[in-house]
């Protein structure tokens, strides 16, 4: 494996060059990969593996939206599309990709279908790490592994089709067969990972829950709302406030960061922007550090898991979720965003 030195911390990563698709196909040649769930990660991982020549079947509850989506994607009932239980019985690798809340609800149905030597695969450490709340305790006669793409299912599929792949973490929780690590790496390459870096189930879920609630989504939305509000309160128009808060970030600056790093982006901005940003970044770090520490503790203690499972199991969850999303969508900030996006050149009417 390639060794990467991060300021004295040595990490090993697995690249496509070191573990090519041909090797993954060889490792998985006698496996039947059963993808349970066809919501967020399921379609992307299943389609990518199918395109890569892996034997894949899909398991969902018949008749629902996921079943219909699977039909539209070319999965054939009785051949490659089955109920959750039938797919789990037929698979030698069972990819448990239903939602975290659904894993708690369906586990008793799935565990009965696992056979000695099967690999039980997750893309999130949630259910296994918080077993006291989910009840998901894998039997001792299966490999228990994880490949967690660092992006949404939409990105996993889009990057695969573009030929770029997406980075993923991987972990082995239980090695019953002695082949768990090799199977995991093969599956990671087969779903289209650009490269794989090793973690543990616990580290994956702690970092994932912190990241989603923090910089990736929660903090990003909250900071945008705060800056937009201040600009509007001081008389700036919605267009100006949105452009300075969201549009310039998403359409220009973040792309520079992605390509070359934060320091390069700073070096290629105006000297006025450089000085102010370098100074104020310390203020924002000091202001948010206690919030991130409190967030991490809430994740590690299982409190965030309790909130998620309780909310997602409520009968009116979808209605409440839509109300929250509607409030965001109909706020002035994001109504301004819809109008600004419509003015991008690629959206101009021909």
TrEMBL record:
Residues engaged in binding Mg(2+) 1: 208, 212
GO MF annotation list: isomerase activity; ketol-acid reductoisomerase activity; metal ion binding
Keyword Isomerase: yes
KARI N-terminal Rossmann domain ranges (all copies): 10-199
Catalytic EC class: oxidoreductase
Residues at which Mg(2+) 2 binds: 208, 244, 248
Obligatory cofactor(s): Mg(2+)
Family classification: Belongs to the ketol-acid reductoisomerase family.
Name recorded for this polypeptide: Ketol-acid reductoisomerase
Gene: ilvC
